Amino acid sequence: MEKFNSSEELMAYISSMSRENSVRQFYIPGKGKFTLVLQEEDEVSIDTEVNENPELKRMIEESREQYKKGLGMTASELIKSLSPKDFN
User: Fold this and answer.
1) CA gap 78, 51 in Å, rounded
2) What is the dihedral of CA 17, 22, 23, 25, to 10 degrees?
3) Which H or E run contains 57?
4) 42, 76, 72, 43: which is closest to 60 by C-alpha?
5) Domains contained in the chain, number
6) Do 50 and 82 share a domain, yes or no?
7) pLDDT by residue (tens digit) across 44-74?
8) What is the pTM of this model?
9) Adjacent-strand bridge partners of 24
10) Which run of H or E residues covers position 23?
11) Are strands 23-28 and 2-3 parallel, antiparallel or unpaired?
12) Which of 33, 37, 57 minimizes the C-alpha distance to 47?
């Protein structure tokens, strides 16, 4: 069982996890023993998807331009704007 005395050591340990090495046990002094399970690895980053999909890249660039012009809305604003009849 690994013992960690700093957050940097712990993050390096977590970063080394993979599908094949998905369960780790470690000890943090003053806290106790932990078991960490990596349930799912990130498949592809958004940046990778944007670079591979010109249409997605166009949509994101358009969205950013609209946001800069004040034409966007937050998730909270969107939720507040919805009503039950929007789902019928």
Assistant:
1) 28
2) 0
3) helix 54-68
4) 72
5) 2
6) yes
7) 678 888 888 999 999 989 988 988 898 888 8
8) 0.42
9) 36
10) strand 23-28
11) parallel
12) 57
